[in-house]
Structures are given as C-alpha cells and as structure tokens.
Design goal:
mainly alpha, MetI-like fold, about 0% strand
Amino acid sequence: MISYIIRRTLYALPILVGVNLLVFALFFVVNTPDDMARMQLGVKYEDAAAVERWKTALGYQLPLFYNADFTGMARFTRTIFYTKSVRLFVFDFGRSDSGRDIGYDISQRMWPSLALAVPILLIGLLINISLALLLALFRASLLDRIAVLCCVLLMSVSGLFYIIYGQFVFSRLLRLVPISGFAAGLASLKFLILPILISVLSGMGAGTRWYRTIFLEEIGKDYVRTARTRGVSEPGILYKHVLGNALIPILTGVVVLIPLLFMGSLITESFFGIPGLGSYTIEAIQRQDFAILRSMVFLGSVLYIIGLLLTDLSYALVDPRVRLGEA
C-alpha cells in the first residue's frame, strides 16, 4: 500500500511541472509583460517609459529564463521564471499586480468557498444517489420514466435561470433570505441557504440520471443474478451489493468536484456576493490582474491532482482487485 501511494505521488509530479510550464508559457510567452502593461495602463498611458515603470514595479522587467547580468545561481533565480513560476511550488504566490498579498487573500477567502461548496457536495451526493437507487429499484416503471423526463428538463435549464429566478422569488417577493452578501459565523447561514438549495437543484437532474445509469449497469451483472438466486431481496441487492460495487465510478465523479471545494463556484459566488475564491478569480479577470490568475490556475491544478491521488487511494480501499494487484 505504501509503495502504491509513493508511485502515484511520483506520477503526479511531472503532471504538475507540465501544468506549471504551460501556465508560464501562456502568461509570459504568448502574453508578454509588455502586453500585460499595455492592458493595465490603457491606450492613454501606454508610452514606453510608463510600460517600463510598470514592469519594474512588479518585477516583470527581468529576463524570462537566464539573466546574464548576474553570476552563479543568481543568473537563474533573478528571472521571471523563478520569481513568478518556480516559487508557486512552495505556495509562495507573491503579490498581486495591485499590490495585495495573494497568499493572505486565499487564506481568507477559502473559508466562504468551503462553507458554500461542502454542503452542496454532501447534500447533492446524498439526494442524487438516493433518488438514483429509488429509480433503479422501480426501473422501467411509470415512476422511472417520469423521473427521467424530469431529470432531462432540469438538465435543459441554464443554471443562471435558477439563480435569477430563486433570487427574485425567495429574496425579492417572499423576502425569506437576503438576495446577496455574507457574514461571519452562524450569521452566514441566511446568506448560504439559497445558493446551496439552487446549486443542489440545478445539479440534481444530471447527477441523478448519471448515478441511475451506473446502478442499472451494475444490476445487469452476473453477481446480481447470483444474489437473486440465493433469495436476496431487491432492496438488499441494491444497498448491499450494487451500491458497494458502484463506488468506483462514483468516486471518479466526485474527484472532479474536489477543486471546487476550495476554488469555489465562479458564477454562484459572484451572483450572491459571497467573498470566496470564485468571486476572487472573477474580480481578478475584471481587473486583468495576471498574478492572481496565475496563482489560481496553479492552485486549481494542484487541488485536482490531489483529488486524483485521493481517488487512487480510495480505489485501493473499496476495490479488492487493486490491493491484490499491489500484493
């Protein structure tokens, strides 16, 4: 098991390095520091002297990979690649183009994102899996057909409609919850209830239909027929056998959502005024703050790779074949 963890971790390192190089190329080769300065300063102030002052103030005046003005290791450390890219591996995000400490901002904004994303993930999983098991139990019945039709209808509606309609009905007309905003501690519940409910509802169609497909595929396998011949009831087959064997595809789907736990939802946080990492990224895009965008892209990649590692570990826990293969 230990060797399995080490090997999977080593597999992830080249991926992270590749993502870092790709991000560096996008932000500093395709989009040069001169281009960033012109976009920040605007056409009115983009003379050569102003561009150079902007680059010097933010450390973008350095060469990309090699600095011939220094000796020894300083030739490589006094470069844009080292100061803006390599330091990300130790989570030294530096300062934003507006002068703010990015690491401090992330440490403050991750908690509202977690307060929103964790309930959405847990409640969504519970509801979607429960409904999917119910539909698998009554498969090919009228209830199943109506439910699948409802799932397709839910999938066909844009998430923005749920947000706008929910804010209009529950906040403006009924005045049950605030339309936007956030507060610390338990006071945040009144601001989080509506976005959590809307997010769970908007994802219910796709989630329920996907889990239903997984369960129906498992039901058609030989071990289910064997369980039926032994006299196991249909609910017992679903909960004791099908659910356990469907954990691997379920875990694979959950890993995609892990970065959202920390990164937040870009649209939901922006519409509801929640000061999380999602709205932080949107604000950086609007301000064209490239330092924040680089940090968020790299952080999202790290979280996704961590999610892949956790998925591999969970495979080893729920699937005996992985453990036997390691042995």
